[in-house]
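(Deposited chain)
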Amino acid sequence: MVKVRAFRTLENALRRMGFVYVAGCDEVGRGCLAGPVVAGAVILDSERYIARVCDSKTVTALERDRLYDQITRGALAWSVVSVEPDEIDRLNIHQASLRAMQRAVMALTPLPDMVLVDAFRIPDLPMAQRGVIHGDSRCTAIAAASIVAKVTRDRLMQELHGRDPRYGFDRHKGYATRDHLDAVARYGYSDVHRRTFRPPSLFDKIDTQV
């Protein structure tokens, strides 16, 4: 995937309008079979430019780690929130993702007076917000939030792999890859799998084992 650097154009325009603390918010892990959905929220310091911030999906793990360190050291505020598989199963993945983002924003200190969100609007926020289509590739604050969320979730999946290496979470991070589906067909679901999200290919594979 081509790496496209995000820009601060929207954040700067909002600051000129009088907003002081402009946060970006994004989530990762929405389409996974296993593990949490993780949301990040970041208020960048307008006086401390971080070069090469872009959508977390378009950079290598090494580059994400480097940017994560720069963002968490240099941001005015940042937070990450995980919603675990049992809560995802109770709520559904869409509602769980919104809840994770709402909690991440409300965990920021100071609280933002404007929130920029990748595509969605987040319910139950007491401050102004704006959904930005393709925000993680267009807006630096949202891209920074996607990086913080992605690195945090990848590290969580590495920990889960250490506890139970049968599924290969260190490789696919819980997404429905072929080797993940093969492992589920062989071992069944673990405690960290989402019971309410099963792609048709998983049913097909399990049926062939009966």
User: Anything to note?
Assistant: Residues 203-210 have pLDDT under 50 and may be disordered. The longest strand covers residues 22-28.
